[in-house]
Amino acid sequence: WGLSGVFDYWGEVDRHQKIDFLNGLHVLSVPTTYKESKGLFILEALANGVPVVQPRHGTFPELIAVTGGGILVEAESPDAIAEGISQLMSDRGYREQLGQQGKEAVHHKFSDDVMAEATLAVYRKYINR
Questions:
Q1: Are strands 52-55 and 70-73 parallel, antiparallel or unpaired?
Q2: 56 and which of 28, 38, 52, 72 could share a cystine (Cβ 3.0–4.6 Å)?
Q3: Measured between alpha carbons, how far is 115 from 64 in angstroms, rounded to an integer?
Q4: Which pLDDT tens digit goes with each residue over 15-28?
Q5: pLDDT of residue 2
Q6: Domains of the chain
Q7: What are the backbone dihedrals phi and psi of residue 90, each rounded to the nearest 5 degrees, phi first?
Q8: Cα angle 6-21-86, degrees, rounded to a multiple of 5
Q9: pLDDT of residue 36
């Protein structure tokens, strides 16, 4: 795919460096081979308007369905990941659409207030039994 020359490794970063890093991306892909159970990095990317290309396993299908901020590809397939990234890199309009959808969804569905209220709702449900 000829993409190996355009990737950099940043190592561990603090919050501000992470935001700067995410703001410099066009697309994020973290092709885990294990079934990721949380996917916080997906929400962080989407919150910054960065669309994602992820394998179809773990929590990724649910996050993409809820946010509309990326595409799913065959798991454990380097070709599928590369094709997904290439698709978004070659179609700026689609890439920006997914990024905007993801950003709006994260800010509306996963904000601190929304998550706190959802947690309180669970507590109320079980405390009021």
A1: parallel
A2: 72
A3: 18
A4: 999 999 999 999 99
A5: 73
A6: 11-127 (3.40.50.2000)
A7: -90, -5
A8: 40
A9: 87
Classify residue 112 by burial, with Cβ atoms within 10 Å: 0-12, 13-18, 19+.
exposed
User: 3-55, pLDDT tens digit by residue?
Assistant: 778 777 778 989 999 999 999 999 999 999 999 889 999 999 999 999 999 99
Q: What is the 3-state secondary structure (H, E, C) of the chain?
A: CCCHHHCCCCCCCCHHHHHHHHHCCCCECCCCCCCCCCCHHHHHHHHCCCCEEEECCCCHHHHHHHHCCEEEECCCCHHHHHHHHHHHHHCHHHHHHHHHHHHHHHHHHCCHHHHHHHHHHHHHHHHCC
State the Rg of the chain over Cα.
16
Other CB atoms closer than 10 Å to residue 59's CB: what's the count?
15
The rounded distance, in Å, linking the Cα atoms of 77 and 86 is: 14
